[in-house]
Amino acid sequence: MKRLVLTPTLWLCFVAFLMMGHNAQAQSLPDFTELVEKAAPGVVNISTSRTIQRGSGPSIQGFGSQDIPEIFRHFFGDNFPAPPSRGQGPRRSEERQSLGSGFVISADGYVLTNAHVVEDADEILVRLNDRRELTAELIGSDSQTDVALLKVDANNLPVLNLGDSDDLRVGEWVAAIGSPFGFDYSVTAGIVSAINRTLPRDVYVPFIQTDVAINPGNSGGPLFNLKGEVVGINSQIFTRSGGFMGLSFAIPINVAMDVADQLRDDGHVNRGWLGVMIQPVSRDLAESFGMEEAVGALIADLDPDGPAAQGGLQAGDVILEVNGEEVERSSTLPRLIGRVAPGSDVALTLMRDGEEVTETLKLGSWPDADAAHASDSDSQVRLGVSVVEVDEATRERLNISAGVEVRQVEPDSVAAQAGLRVGDVLVSIDHRSVSSSEELLSVIEELPSDRAIPLRLYRDGRSMFVALRLE
């Protein structure tokens, strides 16, 4: 066996070769220093406070809200159930605080962040890079996309450059700046690990998935590409421990800015509504429908009063395209429809009876929009619910002539204390029927606050009464 003998000259050449490889590898890694220096001034820290009312009695077995053992917090959080009491004692105030991040999108003081960062806040403080603390006004928020728009009274603020999130590619380097656990202006970096990711209960957002380390406090902060442009808003993580585990998700900036523009102009977001119940197309279903691939969204049912039913769509139709854009899977359809303005015509390519057909129809407005508008009213806040009108099918099933369905119940609200739940159908309040959010507001404005009010509702198909006492 021959042996290679390294002379001093060969040894030096070998070491030089290794060093060249190491330097080449180091030079291939991105340098974020210049990005951070330019972008950090436009990133802000957001803190909120909220005062809630609690009963004065102990939560359980003598434990106050600050004394709940950690094992119980694991299951119940801070909303630990209190035991029944024989009487209603005096109420006390308790302040909750939360931390998050955000960034400046205009020199005159508009700031973008997550809706969950400022949800139910009584006061919002924005701290700038120069340590100024400014009280912010909530212009509007959209829970469906988790985007909120704030306004502070300031001018000549440092503005971040916005990129095009549609240009992102898997494997591209990205960086985040935020305040994880309250540590201001912390920088983390990674790559885009997936795009157009759909998450449960977030059907309107094609999330950017990254391996950038995101932790509590990063929410609402910007995600940058290597050009220093904002391409997303860091929104949530997948975790089993409560901390970062390698998967983080950001809202594409194109989606966020569309929402922000509507919030700034109208104070709310309008989305197109088709009025269909859909399900995925499996391989077997695709074969049964004469399709070569398992793509699209299968219409399983239709709202009889919805735009789809009125426009001639049928149960069993498979929606393949929306205005020429492919519906890769059923989860793609809601966001394609949701970004089209209500009242606009939309062209749908369908698979029907083994043949492709095209139907054009006019979209309606997402029913939650009425509830969102109503929730801005002081009267709606007084009760603490968001409602929509019940459809004809529900009225026939329950044999009622009027009613509104509860879509949201605010924690610690009058409605929550009375035991109202999402899905309840409210028929009457104080023996006065309600058939729309406007009627509900009108009734609430005239209700007394010195006595309990009977509220009739349907839950799981059964009629029942609950007592409502306004504060």
- Placed side by side, the strands forming the largest sheet appear as 1-2-3-6-5-4
What is the average per-residue confidence, as pLDDT, rounded to a whole number? Answer: 81
Q: Roughly what fraction of the amino acids lie in strands? A: 35-45%
Shape: globular
Number of DSSP strand runs:
26
For the termini, the CA-CA separation is 94 Å
Features:
471 residues; 26 strands; alpha+beta; six-stranded antiparallel beta barrel
Write a structural description.
By secondary structure, this protein is α+β, with helices and mostly antiparallel strands. It has helices at residues 8-28, 33-39, 70-76, 115-118, 253-266, 283-288, 307-310, 332-338, 368-374, 378-383, 392-398, 414-418, 437-445, and strands spanning 43-55, 91-104, 110-113, 123-127, 133-142, 147-152, 173-178, 186-199, 202-210, 222-224, 230-237, 248-252, 272-273, 276-280, 297-302, 318-322, 325-326, 345-352, 355-362, 364-365, 385-389, 404-409, 425-429, 432-433, 453-459, 462-468. The strands form five sheets. The chain has a six-stranded antiparallel beta barrel. The radius of gyration is 27 Å and the shape is globular. The N and C termini lie far apart (94 Å). Residues 55-88 and 369-381 have low confidence and may be disordered.
